[in-house]
């Protein structure tokens, strides 16, 4: 139970990679706030039920991470229910894929608001309590797309590249106060999001992966647990690739 007595917030924790991260943190003893986008309450409740069924503590809370006031309310509520947040996993993300010339303004704005501004909103909301404790773990879920690009995902790639820059800058700001800030960059992971890809696109991705298979959400969750633990006390400002070797 390497995270016993720690409080974690996982944004976008109701499904996919976020769900796997929430379950993995809870297995190691953390009390977990499971954030979900309004309308996904049933999925979030199932994650909480699974955690509590295994003897853990969890609480589901709705918030659009792109909405600053909603984020502040979420953090205040979680602090009341579970305690001040020690571990923040900025996982919430959406895609609105399109070639740039066909991309609608709202597709750009929504992806940036959730995938990049959401990271800013949530991090700023929890940072003061971490600074007071002189301990904290901020783990941002980036993507290989933000590092190597992908046609039709200029909005998503720009947001994820921004997350990498944000991670490195903040790591320099808060390292002296016992807070580490790292990013995890998943590759082709089997989730509902990647299930929407065409078979041709999936095969193209697989051809680029030396391990010859897509990843699982649990592959990402294991790295997040490591970064949240004392085993990673001397790791900050890093981007850890969980991609089967895709960007070698």
Protein described:
This protein is α/β, with parallel strands linked by helices and 248 residues long. It has a single domain, classed as NAD(P)-binding Rossmann-like Domain (Rossmann fold). The protein is built from nine helices and seven strands; from the N terminus they run βαβαβαβαβααβαααβ. The protein has helices spanning 16-27, 41-53, 68-82, 105-133, 145-148, 154-174, 192-195, 199-207, 217-228; strands at 7-10, 31-36, 58-62, 87-90, 136-141, 179-186, 239-242. It has a seven-stranded parallel sheet with strand order 3-2-1-4-5-6-7, sandwiched between helices.
Residue share in helix:
40-55%
Secondary structure class reads alpha/beta
Main sheet strand line-up: 3-2-1-4-5-6-7
H/E series: EHEHEHEHEHHEHHHE
Largest sheet: 7 strands, parallel
CATH topology: Rossmann fold
Strand residues, percent: 5-15%
CATH homologous superfamily - what is it? NAD(P)-binding Rossmann-like Domain
CATH classification class: Alpha Beta
How far apart are the termini? 34 Å
The parts where pLDDT drops under 50 for at least 5 residues are none
Q: Total strand count, please?
A: 7
Mean pLDDT across residues: 96
Summarize the topology:
Layout: E1 7-10, H1 16-27, E2 31-36, H2 41-53, E3 58-62, H3 68-82, E4 87-90, H4 105-133, E5 136-141, H5 145-148, H6 154-174, E6 179-186, H7 192-195, H8 199-207, H9 217-228, E7 239-242
Parallel strand pairs: 1-2, 1-4, 2-3, 4-5, 5-6, 6-7
Helix pairs in contact: 1-2, 1-9, 3-4, 4-6
């Amino acid at each position: 139970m390497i995270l016993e007595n720690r409080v974690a917030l996982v944004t976008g924790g109701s499904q996919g990679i976020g769900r796997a991260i929430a379950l993995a943190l809870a297995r190691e003893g953390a009390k977990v706030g499971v954030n979900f986008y309004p309308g996904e309450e049933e999925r979030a409740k199932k994650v909480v039920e699974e955690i509590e069924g295994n003897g853990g503590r969890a609480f589901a809370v709705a918030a659009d991470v792109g909405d600053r006031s909603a984020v502040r309310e979420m953090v205040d509520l979680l602090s009341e229910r579970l305690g001040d947040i020690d571990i923040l996993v900025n996982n919430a993300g959406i895609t609105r894929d399109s070639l740039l010339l066909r991309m609608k303004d709202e597709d750009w704005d929504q992806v940036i608001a959730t995938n990049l501004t959401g990271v800013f909103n949530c991090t700023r909301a929890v940072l003061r309590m971490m600074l007071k404790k002189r301990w904290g773990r901020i783990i941002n879920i980036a993507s290989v797309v933000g590092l190597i690009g992908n046609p039709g995902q200029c909005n998503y790639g720009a947001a994820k590249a921004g997350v990498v820059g944000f991670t490195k800058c903040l790591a320099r700001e808060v390292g002296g106060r016992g807070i580490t800030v790292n990013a995890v960059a998943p590759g082709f992971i089997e989730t509902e999001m990647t299930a929407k890809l065409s078979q041709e696109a999936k095969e193209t991705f697989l051809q680029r992966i030396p391990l010859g298979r897509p990843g699982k959400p649990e592959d990402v969750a294991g790295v997040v647990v490591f970064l949240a633990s004392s085993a990673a006390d001397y790791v900050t400002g890093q981007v850890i690739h969980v991609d089967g070797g895709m960007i070698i």
